[in-house]
Design goal:
Four Helix Bundle (Hemerythrin (Met), subunit A); 6 helices; two-stranded antiparallel ribbon
């Protein structure tokens, strides 16, 4: 089921890029639009994980959405290239570009936390998944506090 969710998310991302003309810039795909869709998909994966943890559900299926979050963490710096600091209702703070090393470190921390969560989920360790979900949420929150406007 999680692979179907992942495929749907990829399909949605691809269709969104094709369906909305304002998503494309003259020189290619709009990184602001891509990162906004990616963040929405990441939020959905994280919400799903939190819901399962809160309900004390089976954590093994959470490995796939956690891996998707890890892949997103690796991708985040790529979708914030120089020159993508304005337009398309971006909420990116200038610190992303002025503190690039810190921003990339935060994205890596998110990726690492998601990979740890994926490993715990694969092992079926509910207690570790709950703790790792909290750590992942804190990682996301730290990045958002420093690099995203409200």
């Amino acid at each position: 089921m999680t692979s179907k969710i992942t495929l749907c998310a990829i399909g949605l991302l691809a269709m969104t890029g094709m369906a909305l003309p304002n998503m494309a810039r003259a020189d290619g795909l709009d990184p602001i639009a891509i990162r906004q869709v990616g963040m929405d998909l990441a939020n959905g994966n994280f919400a799903f994980i939190k819901t399962v943890v809160k309900a004390n559900g089976d954590v093994k299926p959470l490995a796939e959405p956690a891996k998707a979050l890890a892949r997103w963490g690796k991708t985040i710096p790529v979708v914030f290239p120089a020159g993508s600091d304005t337009g398309e209702n971006t909420k990116a703070k200038p610190a992303i570009w002025s503190d690039r090393a810190g921003f990339e470190k935060a994205a890596t921390a998110m990726q690492d936390a998601a990979l740890k969560l994926a490993d715990a989920a694969k092992a079926g360790d509910s207690a570790a998944v709950a703790a790792d979900t909290k750590t992942l949420g804190e990682s996301c929150g730290t990045c958002h506090r420093h690099y995203k406007t409200k």
